[in-house]
Amino acid sequence: MARIKGVDIPKEKRIVISLTYIFGVGKGLAQRILKAAKVDENKKVKDLTSDELLAIRNEIENHTIEGELRSENNMNIKTKMEINSYQGTRHKKGLPVRGQRTNRNAKTRKGRGKTIANKKK
């Protein structure tokens, strides 16, 4: 496996798909990176030369990905929580942030149903 930005990318897949294993790199950004590095996106990772891998690594350095991006996202959420914006209060309460309904969905954010003692139907 090749390592880029501390992430092992699979050998058997095309390089454009393998780059998406890195947090913050989608298919579009992967294509732009490969175009700038002058690498064919249909090549498999195992077929890349060391020069091509180095060119890809150098091009990825220009983008905010992996740990930097995660910490930036967390700082943005903390800032919203500190200024008590609507989204920040939803984050604090563990509810959906982007306007979804909560009376019948939102199990991912709200968790399992909590049973209330002595509640009659």
Care to describe what's here?
The chain has two domains: 59 residues, Helicase, Ruva Protein, domain 3 (Orthogonal Bundle), CATH 1.10.8.50; 37 residues, 30s ribosomal protein s13, domain 2 (Irregular). 44% of the residues lie in helices and 5% in strands. It has six helices and two strands. Strands 1-2 form a two-stranded antiparallel ribbon. A hairpin with a 2-residue loop joins strand 1 and strand 2. The longest helix is centred in the middle third of the chain and has 16 residues.
Keywords, please?
two-stranded antiparallel ribbon; Helicase, Ruva Protein, domain 3; mainly alpha; 2 strands; 30s ribosomal protein s13, domain 2
Q: Rg to the nearest angstrom?
A: 21 Å
Order of helices and strands: EEHHHHHH
Instruction: Let me know the number of strands.
Output: 2
Proportion of helical residues: 40-55%
Sheet having the most strands:
2 strands, antiparallel
**Which CATH top level class of the largest domain fits?**
Mainly Alpha
Structural domain count: 2
The CATH topology of the largest domain is given as: Helicase, Ruva Protein, domain 3
Structural class: mainly alpha
Let me know the average pLDDT.
91
Strand content: under 5%
pLDDT below 50 for ≥5 consecutive residues: which ranges?
Answer: none
Q: How would the global form be characterised?
A: elongated
Q: Report strand order across the widest sheet.
A: 1-2
Ends: how far apart?
58 Å
What's the helix count? 6
Task: Provide the CATH architecture of the largest domain.
Answer: Orthogonal Bundle
